[in-house]
Amino acid sequence: MKYEVLKRSHLKRNIIVSVIIILILSAVILTFTKAKYKTTASIPLVNGTINYDLSDLNLIGVYIQEGEEYIQTNEIPSSGYEFNSEKSYCTVNNENIDVTLNYDMETQTISVVPLTTKGTKCYLYFEEKSGASDVIEDIYEENQDMLAYDGSADNNLRYIGRDPNNYVLFNNELWRIIGVFNENSHGVAGQRLIKIIRNESIGRFSWDNKASGTGSSTSSYGSNDWSDSALQLVLNEGAYWNRTNGTCPKGQNGATTNCDFSANGLTDEAKSMIETVTWKLGGSSTHRDVTPSMFYERERGTTVYSGRATTWQGEIALMYPSDYGYATSGGSTTNREACLAKALYNWDSSSYSDCKNNDWLFNSSTTQWTLTPYSSNSYYVFFVDAPGYVYYGNANNSFGVRPSVYLTSNVSISGGDGTMNNPYILKA
Question: Which of 412, 386, 389 is nearest to 399 (CA)?
Fold first, then answer.
C-alpha cells in the first residue's frame, strides 16, 4: 500500500515537471517564432498588400546576398540590392503557396497576389545589385568574339562585329551599347560607364548652321564648336530633350525645319538614367592618314580651331570617329588588327571591305554625323559616309543624327539577352 502511494506521488511530481518543461519550451519556441516572422494576423491584408511597420522588420524573414550565400538580417537593404521575386516565397502552415510576391522599395510594401489567408509567412530575398558595366565585363569573359578591349591608353571595352548582342531598351526604343568606358574618357571620377547610341537616326539635320556673327559662327555654314551647336541645343534643351514638337537646324544662315519628337523624344525615365559627363571636343587637322587609335587620341586632345572649346559638359552628344573604327571585328580577308591599322578615310576600299562590313556602326544607307571637328577650319565636321569612310564637310550639311549618351553608374540590367528581339532591360 505504501509503495502504491509513493508511486502515485512520484508520478504526480513527474507530470507536473513535464508540464512545466513543455510550457517553458513552448514559450521559447513562440518567442523565437515571433522574433523571426510576422503573420497576417498582425500584418493586415488590404487588396492583396501586406503593410508593415519598418520598426518591426525583424519580424519578417529577410535574406540578403553576400557573395554566394544568403544571410538572414533584421533590415531590408536600402541600396546596393534588388528584390528577387523568383527566389522570394510565402508559406501557410509550412507549405509553399502559389502567389506572386513583390516588394516596392519606394512605398516599402509587400504585395501578395492573390490575396492570402491568415497565417501566411513571407520570406524576402535581396541580391547584390549588379551594375550594367559589371554584366558586360562578365559577358566579355565568355564572348570575346563580340567584345574587345580597344588597346587605347584608357583600354575601354567595346562591342565589335557585324551584329553583336548589344541591343538595349532605352527610352522605350532600341539603342545599342558602344561599350564600357573608364573615367579618363568621360570625366566621372572612379566610374566605368556604359555608353549607348540610338539604333536608328532621329532624322537628317545640320550639325550647326548659325549665321555668321551668331555665337561662335563666323560663316553662313555654321560653326564646328559643339558647345553652342544648334544640334546640341535641340538634343539637350530643345524639342528632342523635351519630347515635343519644335524646329531643328537645316540649311544655311540659321534656317530650320519642323521636327516632331513628341513620340520619340526623351522620357523622364530615360533622362534619369543619363549621366552628365565631359565630352572631349578635340579635333584633327588631317584625315587621310588617321587610324581609329589616332582619332581617339586627337578627340581627347586640345587641337581645335581658334577659340573653340576643347570640352563640353552635358548629357547628349554623338559618336566619335574612333567609336566607328573600334567597332569592327574585321573578317577572314582583313582581320581586326589590320583594320585598326588602316586610316578610316580608306575604309571604302574594296580590299578593306571586311572592316566596314563587320562593323555594327556602319550604315550603308545614310551618312552619319560624328562629334569631332576638322580643326583647320571653322565649320568642318567629320562624318561617317555611306560608303564606309570617314571624311569631313560643312556643319550645315544635313546628315543622319544618332544621339549618344553615357548611363549613370547605378543603372543595372534586369532582363533580356542583348538580341534585337530580346534587348537588355535597364533599371535605375
Answer: 386
CA–CA distances in Å: residue 267 to residues 44, 61, 218? 37, 37, 35
The cell numbers describing 273, all together, are: 538614367
Under the banding of pLDDT at 50, 70 and 90, the label for residue 122 is confident
Q: Which residue type, as a one-letter code, is found at position 287?
A: H
Distances (CA, A) of 188 to 271, 315, 419: 17, 12, 29
What does each C-alpha distance from 28 to 17, 31, 35, 94, 319 come to in angstroms? 17, 5, 11, 19, 66
**With 0-12 CB in 10 A as exposed, 13-18 as middle and 19+ as buried, what is 379?**
buried
Tell me the DSSP string of 78-120: SSSEEE-TTT-EEEETTEE---EEEEETTTTEEEEESPPPTTE
Residue partners of 174: CB distance under 8 A and separation at least 6: 167, 168, 198, 199, 200, 420, 423
Query: Would you call 239 helix, strand, or coil by DSSP?
Result: helix
The pTM of the full predicted model, rounded to 2 decimals, is 0.73
Q: Which residue would you say has higher pLDDT here, 145 or 428?
A: 145
Per-residue pLDDT, 116: 57
CA-to-CA distance for 140 and 59, rounded, in angstroms? 42
C-alpha cell at 169: 531598351
Q: Are 328 and 339 in contact (CB under 8 A)?
A: yes
Nearest to 320 by CA among 294, 288, 356, 357: 294
